[in-house]
Every structure is written in C-alpha cells, then in structure tokens.
Amino acid sequence: MNVLIAPNAFKGTLSAIEAGEIIASSIRSRNPKASIEVIPIGDGGDGTCELLGYSLGLTFVSFWCLNAVGKPVLGSYYLNEDKAYIDVSAFSGLGQLPPHELDIKVSSTYGTGQAIQHAISKGAKEIILGLGGSATIDLGIGILQALGIHFLDANGRNLIPFSKDFLFKIKHIQKGPKIPKVKFTCLCDVKNTFGGPDGAIPVFGPQKGLISEEISKYENQCELLLEMMYRKSNLAFQDKSGFGAAGGIAAGLSGFFETKIETGATYFFGQISLEKKLEKADFLITGEGRYDNQSKSGKACFELLKLAEKYQKPIFLITSGEEALSEEFTRVYQLPDLNFQKNNFREVAKKNLKEISQTIDLE
Questions:
Q1: At what angle do helices 345-357 and 16-30 cross, to 10 degrees?
Q2: CA distance 37 to 112
Q3: What is the DSSP letter of 82?
Q4: Contact between 59 and 22 (Cβ < 8 Å)
Q5: How distant, in Å, are the alpha carbons of 65, 120, 337 from that of 316?
Q6: Which of 171, 186, 331, 345 is 20 to 30 A removed from 158 (C-alpha atoms)?
Q7: Which domains, ranges and CATH numbers included, belong to the chain?
Q8: 13-23 pLDDT, tens per residue?
Q9: What's the predicted TM-score (pTM) here?
C-alpha cells in the first residue's frame, strides 16, 4: 500500500511540514506495513517559497532587513543558481505584526525589496516571489524603491519608505541609473484583480488595518499611481487576474520589470514533480485549516483534488468547516473549530489533527 500525504499549511496553527509529520505518524500506527511518502505542499500562500526551498534542498540564506512597518526582522530565502525563492511574508508579512502595529498608512514592501536586492547581489537573475501573507497595500512600491526606482514628493524630494501616507505624497517617479536586470515570477493563491469590488483594497484591505471609510480614497489613489507608474515605462495599465494579491505587488512590478503570474499550486506541483509521485500512490491524504469558498480559486487542496480525479485516485481531506462536504473528495474528515482566544490553541490543533488522523480508514 502506497500512501501519499500532501497537506497544505493549517493557517495560524501548523505548518505544512508539521501537519505532514503528525498525519504520517498516525497513519503508520494503524498501517505499519504501508509505504508512506510525505510531501508538504504550498500554493502561493504564506511560506510557499520556504517550502519549495525545503522540498528541493536549495541553499538557505538568512538576511536582516526591515519588516512591513520598518522594524528589523531576520527573514530567509532560498537560492538555486540564478534563481531566488522569496516569500513576501518572510520580510513584509502580516503574521510578523501584533494587531496594534498594523498600519496600512506606513506599511511598505521595502524590506522584501532589500531581500531581493541581496539575492541579486548573490547572482539571482529571476525572483520567484510568493505573494501570500503580506501586510501591505503599496503596489510593490517599497520593492521598487529598494531596486532603484525613485518616488518623489511635490518638491522633487525622495520619499522615505515607511513615512506616513507616503502613497498620497507621490507626485513624480524617476528611474535610477542602476536598476537591476531581473525578472519576476509571482506565485498567487488568489485570482483577484487589483481593482473592482473583488479587488485588493476592498477584499484584503480590512485584514491589513484599512478602515471601511478609507477604501474608496485608497482605490482612487492607487489607480492614479498605477497610471503614473506605467506611463513612466510607456505602457498602458491593464488589470489582470492575480494583481490583487499582496496589495498589488505584481501590478507594480509589471510596470518596470518582466513579470509573470503563476497559480501557486500549479507551479509548486510542477517543481516537485507531484504528478509522478501521485501516479504511484494508492491513497492521497491532504488537509488545510479551513476549506471554504476561496479554495476553488487556486488553493492547494482543490488543485490536488483535480489531480486525484485525473488519475482516479482516492483522496481524503482533513479540514474544518462544512464547505468541503459538497466537493468530490473521497472522504472529508472534519476538525473541530479552535478557540484562538486561548493560549494553547496550537497544542490543541496538534492534538485534534493527531486524533482525527488516527480515524482514517485506508481499507
């Protein structure tokens, strides 16, 4: 019996690696003769590039930079010859900030840009950028500042990253003389465009501290900035699927650099040759914290379901919530909801996952 265990992260509680180890241990205890392979998976969400680096055995690089509100943070990325795999969440992440530090008026991707510049100095010519988990809505302007694009105020002075309301102070843009020749592949787990009712600001802004009364103000300003940025490169801005991820990072980068947007799960599966591993499996077990109506927009578990259907493999899902019950998973094992107000919620999450994994029947 060949069992492939491929969980996504259980957001806010367990990494994909931790979840895979817990599930595998439970399966082994009931099926000691089973051949088990654990492959944690990502889809462009928090930690996707970290997981890719781990899975592919790439070179680990740690780097001090500034987080989303300008405080020092030790982040990490991975190098593979002339490619660097960098998560926005590792340098400009929402998960790094306590609620009282969330401030959309000052938050910037400048620290991610510092990491990108560092990777370029190490020989990177392509940046694989995981967009999940950002704390910013800055159109990637912080990254662009770190890479030599100058954003100036009405008096022609360079605006300092993390200065309050810096998006509203930008009046001019200049390209510096030493902009690196680098291209970007942006990994997304959402398909939102930047603008519109399902765009970055109305959908993700409130998660990052934007109050509802200021949504239209930010939408109008970002629209003006995008027009200004693309005009600087003699381009016309056209909104695309994925531009809404991470506060419009891909939208901003596309104005100055060769930029490609990939569905994170599809890219991840291809990099680790998941289909070949799936062909040999008799059973597939996956999981995520909560399967909901966004899961069909490129999340790992849904993309894995499509692969399992392609190869006619039984697929079991471990998750919370009831939305998955209407999907075509062979079986759905439902986790109880967690009380995130309690300090021990991570330990409870581990206990719940272990207990429900021990009920999985592979007969």
A1: 40
A2: 33
A3: T
A4: no
A5: 41, 41, 19
A6: 186
A7: 2-41+273-357 (3.40.50.10350), 48-265 (3.90.1510.10)
A8: 898 999 999 99
A9: 0.91
